[in-house]
Design a protein that fits this description.
Elements: H1 10-28, E1 30-36, E2 44-46, H2 48-52, E3 65-68, E4 75-78, E5 83-86, H3 92-96, E6 103-110, E7 115-124, E8 137-143, E9 151-153, E10 169-172, E11 178-184, E12 190-196, E13 207-215, E14 223-233, E15 241-242, E16 246-252, E17 260-263, E18 266-267, E19 277-281, H4 287-292, E20 293-295, E21 301-304, E22 315-324, E23 331-341, E24 349-355, E25 359-360, E26 368-375, E27 385-389, E28 395-401, E29 404-409, E30 420-429, E31 436-446, E32 454-455, E33 459-465, E34 472-476, E35 479-480, E36 491-495, E37 498-499, E38 502-503, E39 508-510, E40 516-519, E41 530-538, E42 546-556, E43 564-565, E44 581-587, E45 595-598, E46 601-602, E47 612-616, E48 627-629, E49 635-638, E50 649-658, E51 665-675, H5 682-727, E52 742-746, E53 753-757, H6 778-786
Length: 787
């Protein structure tokens, strides 16, 4: 069909269009209606009969019927009025799903003539479906480490409606981390996308709950929502940390092994392996410190693992690393400052640094003998040392400087009283309990020649018998010197002097070393009774010191001189005793007891040895002699009156004997001529008288001698007692040639003597030692006194 369009007027145009439409309708046989879904039963759809050009009346006869393929009886036609209406609920979404066009195709069939009409009933959408999310909760796991603007597409909602009703807009609940972005897809659908607008932090917000709401474009609008559960996954973004960067710990030295020093607790905000930590010493920790401490890498306990000695090191700086097991791992640090406290575990040490030994005994007070230094490795009071010295020594400690002392002489020394000192220096610290140490110093005192040799007595008395053999040892002097070595080496010498014509050294000598005194030649009592001299002792010190001792050597008498007869006074003849005869004239008239003659003799010896006794030798014929001789005076007297029977010439032999042992004798011959009375020549008488005078003198001498002996003996006994008392304890002087112990008895007041002497061997060495009581025999002493 061709349409020629001639625009004349609008009304004409509309008419034309209508005609065209009708023509098309008729031609295609199609009628178009539309009905909203979900319309109620009976909702008018269209006047289908009319629209198909059918008369109402003919509907029934022509068997008007509607057929719908597969859609049943959604729509019905009222045959009375030819109206198509909604029969049952029409759900567009059920019919057509999500297709934009949705229509129900109806075939309208009439018979007589059979005609088929196609009717399209468009089902129009209404907003009857809300947007729907497939799940009510959507979980997202997002690592906290995701960067900003990271995108996380979400599953969108779906809306069963179409068109505007299915146009969805999304909305996200307010939050600080995410913003919503919408991606418009080609199919008009939209995909919501979460965009990270702020860094996540698991440690702050381990999970987020957001609400995503979808709203469709219908009127009224419907909404649907989904919960977005966002799990923030941990990233190892937190280093382990200690609550302090520096820990200060104090501990005593010598702590037991495995003592806990500190228990470190690091924390890590991360989780899982990211918060599993390993403790370790930092590489900064020197190996010396590592040896001392043990780190438990799991628990963070630091324990002692070796001896902790304050004196080695009093602080330790331990840098500790703690590393988590994340990837990459993160490390935290701290420093443990261990302050080691001192314990008094070190004894003081005493060092004697220099010694000026030995010390001379004449050293000045204040002389420094040694330097002493003390030390203590501890600190504080534990290291404060005080030094003390053995008490009661002549030394003292002088502190020169902190912990330095001088050992100084405090008072004068005397080697002879104390020759060495064992000093002990004690150093004691002020710890509690305190420790101490000692050092010994042996101070030897060096000798100085300050002592002269000393004899036990200032004077010794020695008795030597005369006629000693030459070189006889008579005495030993001995001096002691309190000094040492050469200062005590004593040598003896004689202090020379003259003895009469001769030098002392011709009599005696002294052995320089032994101090033995020798008599060089036989001594003669008759010549020299007392030899007094000095022996000097000198030591070998520089300068030498010396002292003198006096020796009194008494030469004891021996009976070495026989009695000597004296010539009659007036005869002037020599004293030869032996054959010298005395002639006397004796008057026959003399009575008994008349002294007619006297034998005179002397003895060069002394004492008993010089004490003479006289006795008459019996006459050869055995005739009784009318004479006798007085035992001690030598006076010859008559025993009876003479008579004619007596021979005119009488020859008497008088034995003169001394009292020595053995006694020595001399024999005097006395010739007596008996004359008648008055016949006695004047000369003779004169001679006799003279002789009598001499005799009287001799008798006097003898009496004096006896008196003197007795007096001296008494004196001697007294002196002996005194002497014994004084010298009782004194060491005996030695004299090898000294006589044996004499015994002295004074028996009568008249002066009768008896003297006996126990003879010992001569010159018996070490034998005869004179006791304090050993004194020369009284006569000898008398002679000495006479001098
Ligand atoms: C670490 O934890 C232990 C056990 O709880 C505790 O005894 C110790 O004192 C802690 N260490 C520090 C330095 O706080
Ligand atoms: C301390 O104990 C540990 C473990 O028992 C040991 O290895 C170490 O030798 C000990 N240290 C000392 C000084 O005894
Ligand atoms: C010893 O005697 C001698 C001689 O008499 C004398 O020179 C000397 O000084 C005396 N020595 C002493 C220590 O008295």
């Amino acid at each position: 069909m061709m349409l020629v369009y001639t625009p004349s007027s609008p009304r004409a145009l509309r008419l034309l269009l209508l005609l065209l439409l009708a023509a098309w309708k008729a031609g295609s046989g199609q009628v178009h209606y539309s009905v909203p879904e979900e319309a109620k039963h009976g909702t008018f759809v269209g006047r289908i009969a009319q629209d198909l050009g059918l008369e109402l009346a003919e509907l029934v006869p022509r068997l008007f019927r509607v057929a719908s393929k597969g859609h049943g009886d959604l729509l019905e036609v009222n045959l009375q009025n030819g109206i198509l209406f909604v029969n049952s609920r029409i759900d567009r979404e059920e019919l057509c799903g999500r297709s934009a066009e949705c229509s129900i195709h109806l075939e309208v069939i009439v018979d007589r003539p059979l005609q088929v009409f196609h009717v399209e009933v468009e089902v129009k959408d209404i907003n009857d479906n809300p947007p729907v999310f497939s799940v009510s909760e959507q979980k997202l796991s997002i690592p906290e480490s995701r960067l900003l603007d990271s995108r996380f597409p979400l599953e969108g909602a779906s809306d069963a409606d179409v068109g505007e009703n299915a146009v969805l807009t999304y909305r996200l609940s307010p939050n600080e981390f995410f913003i919503l972005d919408i991606i418009n897809r080609k199919d008009k659908a939209k995909t919501p996308v979460l965009v990270l607008g702020k860094m996540l932090d698991r440690e702050e917000n381990p999970q987020l709950q957001l609400l995503l709401t979808a709203t469709d474009g219908g009127k009224p609008e419907y909404t649907g929502s989904v919960t977005l559960l966002i799990l923030v996954l941990d990233a190892n973004d937190n280093a382990p940390i200690f609550d302090r960067s520096v820990y200060e710990v104090k501990m005593y030295e010598n702590s037991a092994n495995q003592t806990l020093v500190i228990w470190l607790n690091a924390s890590d905000a991360d989780e899982g392996v990211n918060k599993e930590m390993i403790y370790s010493f930092s590489s900064l920790v020197p190996s010396s410190t590592r040896r001392k401490f043990l780190m438990n890498e799991k628990t963070g306990e630091i324990r002692v693992n070796d001896a902790i000695d304050f004196e080695d090191s009093n602080t330790y700086e331990i840098h500790v690393d703690v590393t988590d097991k994340g990837n990459p791992p993160m490390v935290g640090h701290c420093t443990v400052l261990v302050e080691v406290l001192d314990e008094n575990d070190n004894s003081p040490e005493v060092v004697i640094t220099s010694l000026a030994l030995p010390v001379r005994e004449d050293a000045q007070v204040g002389s420094v003998i040694a330097l002493i230094s003390v030390s203590d490795r501890d600190s504080g009071a534990n290291g404060q040392v005080t030094c003390t010295l053995t008490p009661r020594v002549p030394f003292k400690l002088v502190s020169t400087f902190k912990n330095y002392y001088s050992l100084v002489l405090d008072s004068a020394l005397d080697r002879e009283s104390v020759s060495d000192y064992a000093l002990v220096v004690t150093a004691r610290d002020a710890g509690s309990p305190s420790l101490s140490a000692t050092a010994s110093v042996s101070v030897e005192v060096a000798d100085v020649n300050d002592n002269a040799p000393a004899f036990a007595q200032p004077e010794y008395t020695v008795f030597v018998k005369e006629n000693n053999p030459p070189g006889c040892h008579i005495f030993t002097v001995s001096a002691r010197d309190a000094d040492a070595q050469e200062n005590a080496l004593v040598s003896y010498s004689l202090v020379e002097r003259r003895v009469g014509e001769r030098a002392l050294s011709s009599y005696v000598s002294v052995h320089a070393e032994s101090g033995k005194v020798y008599a060089l030649q036989p001594l003669d009592h008759e010549e020299l009774e007392l030899l007094q001299f000095q022996v000097s002792a000198r030591d070998a010190g520089v300068p030498p010191l010396g002292s003198n001792v006096t020796l009194q050597v008494f030469v004891l008498d021996e009976n070495d001189n026989a009695p000597a007869l004296l010539p009659r006074p007036g005869t002037g003849g020599g004293g030869g005793g032996g054959g010298g005869a005395v002639s006397e004239l004796v008057s026959r008239s003399v009575g008994a007891g008349h002294v007619v003659a006297k034998v005179r003799a002397v003895d060069a010896d002394s004492g008993y040895n010089a004490w003479l006794s006289y006795e008459l030798q019996p006459a050869a014929g055995g005739a009784r002699s009318p004479f006798r001789v007085a035992l001690y005076t030598g006076e010859i007297s008559t025993t009876r009156t003479l008579d004619e029977a007596d021979s005119p010439r009488q020859r008497l032999l008088v034995l003169v004997k001394d009292h020595g042992e053995p006694a020595l004798t001399a024999t005097a011959t006395v010739l007596l001529s008996l004359v008648e009375s008055g016949q006695a020549p004047k000369a003779s008488s004169r001679v006799l008288a003279g002789a009598a005078g001499a005799e009287t003198a001799l008798v006097d001498v003898n009496v004096y001698l006896i008196i003197a002996i007795c007096a001296v003996s008494s004196l001697l006994v007294l002196t002996l007692l005194l002497y014994t008392a004084l010298r009782c304890s004194a060491p005996p002087a030695e004299g090898a040639c000294a006589p044996g112990k004499p015994t002295l008895v004074c028996s009568s007041a008249v002066g009768s003597w008896s003297y006996s002497q126990q003879r010992r061997q001569r010159c018996a060495p070490r034998r005869a030692r004179p006791r304090p009581t050993s004194w020369p025999s009284a006569p000898a002493f008398l002679r000495v006194l006479d001098l």
